Amino acid sequence: MHFDLGKARLRKPEPSDVDALFAQKNDPEVAAMLGGFTKGYTRADLARWVEAHSQAKDEALYVIADATDRCLGHVGLYKIDHRIRSAEFAILVGDKKAWGTGVGRACTSFMLRFGFEDLQLHRIYLEVLETNERARSLYESLGFKHEGRLRHAQWKGGRYLDVHVMGILEDEWRSHAR
Ligand SMILES: CC(C)(COP(=O)(O)OP(=O)(O)OC[C@H]1O[C@@H](n2cnc3c(N)ncnc32)[C@H](O)[C@@H]1OP(=O)(O)O)[C@@H](O)C(=O)NCCC(=O)NCCS
């Protein structure tokens, strides 16, 4: 199964994505935008990543692919909890040539529709570094609200960074997407 968004296709991760993911997830400029520590990934780590995410039950994770089916990154809803109808959103456009081309907006917008309409969620939330202005402005423009700030919750580039928690509720999405 795949979804055609015009600017990109979303499909399940495949072993043939490992080389692209290896280049993207080890790129320091990409890693600087993401939370957590990474000592770098091996191809074996990424093969395990593909395997684990192909089978996980509480998430809807897709590879973002271009017209030639090359992997540009991934996007998904994680920690899907149908009891409280909530999930966490995350996106990685790891191919820097795709930055600023509208791929992130198309994928984020699609996953919001998928979450609220297909999965019947009530709330979608995310965490984003205070320094990630590109991502924060994308999320705000799609209707995410700033919910709080986790002070000094990450350590990046030799300093502590705050992490912003953002969220959007189903009625907010409906009035925003209309
Ligand atoms: C953040 C990310 C998803 C945005 O996707 P993208 O394809 O680069 O962005 P888009 O072209 O769809 O632009 C979406 C919005 O981002 C913002 N944006 C784009 N380029 C920007 C820039 N250089 N500076 C500030 N904001 C910018 C704008 O609000 C833009 O809206 P517009 O199209 O109305 O101008 C993508 O760059 C990415 O994955 N980066 C690396 C990993 C990352 O930061 N992930 C998110 C972690 S929370």
CA-atom Rg in angstroms = 16 Å
CATH architecture: 3-Layer(aba) Sandwich
Oligomer: single chain
H/E series: EEHHHEEEHEHEEH
| Inertia-based shape | globular
- CATH first level: which class? Alpha Beta
Strand order of the largest sheet: 1-2-3-4-5-6-8-7
**In CATH terms, what is the fold-level topology?**
Aminopeptidase
The number of distinct β-strands equals 8
Percent of sequence in beta strands: 25-35%
**Structural class, from secondary structure content?**
alpha+beta
Question: In CATH, what is the homologous superfamily?
Answer: Gcn5-related N-acetyltransferase (GNAT)
Largest sheet properties: 8 strands, mixed
How is this fold's topology laid out?
Layout: E1 2-4, E2 9-11, H1 18-25, H2 28-31, H3 43-55, E3 60-65, E4 71-81, E5 86-93, H4 103-118, E6 123-129, H5 133-141, E7 145-156, E8 159-169, H6 170-177
Parallel strand pairs: 5-6
Antiparallel strand pairs: 1-2, 2-3, 3-4, 4-5, 6-8, 7-8
Helix pairs in contact: 1-3
The structure holds coenzyme A.
Task: Describe the overall structure.
There is one protein chain. The protein has helices at residues 18-25, 28-31, 43-55, 103-118, 133-141, 170-177, and strands spanning 2-4, 9-11, 60-65, 71-81, 86-93, 123-129, 145-156, 159-169. It has 178 residues and is α+β, with helices and mostly antiparallel strands. The protein has one domain (2-177): Gcn5-related N-acetyltransferase (GNAT) (Aminopeptidase, 3-Layer(aba) Sandwich), CATH 3.40.630.30. The protein is globular and about 40 Å long. The two termini are 27 Å apart. The model has no long low-confidence stretch (mean pLDDT 95).
